[in-house]
Structures are given as structure tokens and as C-alpha cells.
Amino acid sequence: TYTELIARTAFVSIDDASRYIGDMGFFGNTTLDFVVHVDETAPEGIIFDLVTELTSGETEFEAMHPTRIGIVCEDFETGDFDSFDWVSGGTQPWEITTEFPLEGFYSVKSGDIDNGQQSSISLTYEVMTADSISFYRKVSSEPNDMLKFMINGEVVGEWSGTTTSWRRESFPVSAGMKTFEWSYQKNGSGSTGADCGWLDL
Known about the structure:
mainly beta
């Protein structure tokens, strides 16, 4: 019985990818370790097919395993917005803050706005395959002021009131170009609490 591990991308190479594993029997199993090299120029977060081919006599079997290179993650620990192409919008931009980080030293909070205004931050990213986006958020507001999360302009989550701890949110995302936007929006009157939203990814 022979097996071969194939990476269908130019960014990945595998040492000793073809192996002779002997007679496994009808219900036999074995464990193999492979050394996999990822090129340093590989785009973060791309998906490629990792294929296992098994040959025993005239019988061939192939299994495909979609595999991700790294995880696309923003934690704001650079202390700025330079890691990704963040875009600010609304009356006041979101800002890096050392107040109440989830972990590390930094999170981001919505800008200081008045009634009837909004503060937003967005990121456009090409999602290579169906996946999900997750983040942590807090909000301190009156009931009618909202921290909203939108995907391609559609509101998929909104929160108000006061949360004293970080809450994790997760949403499914289909493949394609997506714009993810977080917006803190105030109604026409009133103010409660810190009157803002926080975000950490």
C-alpha cells in the first residue's frame, strides 16, 4: 500500500510526500507524520486543497481536505489601524484605546458623537470560501442608541444598554467580497453611560 500527500498550491511543499506503508489489512490503520513547509509569501488566510491519495494494488482512493494557511486576525495590538485597510466613517472616527481591553493593551471604541450622529469603522475583505467572522464587543448606551454590525450594508447584529463584560459574537459569511462595518448610532435625544461601543477581534 502506498500513500501520497499532495498540496495543491505553489505556496506549500511537503518532505517525503510519497510513502510505502505496507499491508494494513482490511480494517487496518496507521499514522504518518509529514513535514510541511509554507512559503513566507503565502497570503494569510487562503484556502488550498490538501489531498491524500492511497493506492493498494489496483484500488485507488483519494480524499480532499480544504486547509487554511494561518488565521486572519486583528487584535489592534499594533496600537494603530495599519494592519488592515480600515476605513472610518460617520461624524467621528473610531479610536484606539487602552480602556478595558479584552486582552493585551488595546481595543477600539466609537468616536465621541452627539444625538442624531454616528461613528463607524469598516473593512472590505475577499472571503475565499464560506466561513465565519467573530469578534468581541461591549456597549454602554441608552436603549435607543445602538452598536450595529453590518455585512455588505445588511444589519446582522445590534446591541444597546450597558454590558460590563465583553461578549463574543459570531456570524456566518459566504465566499466573495465583503464589507464588514461596525457603527455606533445615536438617536435624537438623551445619553446614558459611556455612550459608546467597544470592539476587539
